[in-house]
Amino acid sequence: MQWPSIIMVEYAPGASSEGDDGALGAALIALTVIQSGTFVVTAEAPMAVYRWKSGETPEIIAKGTEFTTEVGDYFLTGPEQPGMRNEGDVPATYQHAVIDPEDPLVIDYCAPLG
């Protein structure tokens, strides 16, 4: 995978993934935007959640807290990825934009192709 990367992830009803404490991967930064359905998220580290419908300042979530996100909500995470699950009756999706600040991909638009 190249960095930055944008990934669409779909969870079937009842699907889930465990979070991690950052020990499993690179020091990635990820922006997650809920595209459809709802997700129950468990914060593995303190995080800020921006609620699309409220238009207000971000909601600060404490480490270990479980909260629900819906379409348009978004949050930024560091190396610690939250646990997520779809408790709904329909598939739920999110867009995940990931960068690796320790090893960024530099694109030189002036360099010849090939």
Write the layout of secondary structure elements.
Blueprint: E1 5-11, E2 16-17, E3 29-36, E4 38-42, E5 47-50, E6 59-61, E7 66-70, E8 74-77, E9 83-85, E10 92-99
Antiparallel strand pairs: 1-10, 2-9, 3-8, 3-10, 4-7, 4-9, 5-6, 5-8
Short structural summary:
By secondary structure, the chain is mainly β.
Key terms:
mainly beta; about 110 residues; six-stranded antiparallel beta sheet; Jelly Rolls; about 45% strand; 10 strands
Which second-level CATH architecture applies? Sandwich
Q: At the first level of CATH, what is the class?
A: Mainly Beta
Report how far the terminal alpha carbons are from each other.
Answer: 19 Å
Please state the average pLDDT score.
84
Q: Could you list the spans in which at least 5 consecutive residues all have pLDDT below 50?
A: none
Question: How many structural domains are formed by the residues?
Answer: 1
Q: Structural class of the secondary structure composition? A: mainly beta
**Widest sheet: strand ordering:** 1-10-3-8-5-6
Question: Treating each run of at least 4 consecutive H or I residues as one helix, how many helices?
Answer: 0
The CATH topology is: Jelly Rolls
User: Please, what is the CATH homologous superfamily?
Assistant: Jelly Rolls
